[in-house]
Amino acid sequence: MAATLKPYLNAVRTTLEAAMCLENFYSQRVERHNKPEVEIRSSKEVLFTPLEICRNEKEKVLIEGSINSLRMSIAIKQADDIEKILCHKFMRFMMMRAENFFILRRKPIEGYDISFLITNYHTEQMYKHKLVDFVMEFMTEIDKEISEMKLCLNGRGRISAVEFLKNFN
């Protein structure tokens, strides 16, 4: 793990663990409704202060909490146009399968690449530390996945170019 990545991930992990204290909270406007307050933003008193953790300008995490839900948005490092395209396609692929990832949102927050929504029902049904481990594993592996896809794409492009240019000899 890179020397600058470890403190960044540790800060995200501790913040996420602290914000994961969620409890059942019914709506103050509609009787017997329990909606994620971080999404509907109906009552200011149940929202926590959003926290942004940045590694650099392009790589950051926004953690927004409320009494019954937590929204975590991740901006992934994209150095060039190829990485932007690969990241966009990969995130689109995952968001189309959001029902298989119970905490994944179908649409990210503006300015971020992917968002997770964790409610009190998720923390009641699943282990909190396992949810945190999943998100942290996702953050560490996503850079590796995009780098591997970029290497494969460059290799395939090189082979295609060689085969194409053989026709001109």
Supply database-style keywords:
169 residues, 4 strands, alpha+beta, 14% strand, elongated
Measure the end-to-end span.
46 Å
Secondary-structure element pattern, one letter each: HHEEEHEHH
Biggest sheet details: 4 strands, antiparallel
Class from helix and strand fractions: alpha+beta
Percent of residues in helices comes to: 40-55%
- Kindly state the number of beta strands: 4
- In DSSP terms, counting alpha (H) and pi (I) runs of 4 or more, how many helices? 5
The best one-word shape is elongated
Indicate the multimeric state.
Answer: single chain
Task: Return the average pLDDT rounded to an integer.
Answer: 91
**Biggest sheet strand line-up:** 1-2-3-4
What fraction strand?
5-15%
Low-confidence stretches: none
Gyration radius over CA: 20 Å
Describe the protein's architecture and organization.
Helix content is 47%, strand content 14%. The chain is α+β, with helices and mostly antiparallel strands and 169 residues long. A four-stranded antiparallel beta sheet has the order 1-2-3-4. The chain has helices at residues 5-19, 37-40, 81-96, 120-125, 128-166; strands at residues 51-54, 60-65, 69-75, 114-119. The longest helix is centred in the last third of the chain and has 39 residues, at 128-166. A hairpin with a 3-residue loop joins strand 2 and strand 3 (69-75). It is elongated. The protein starts with a helix and ends with a helix. It contains five helices and four strands; from the N terminus they run ααβββαβαα.
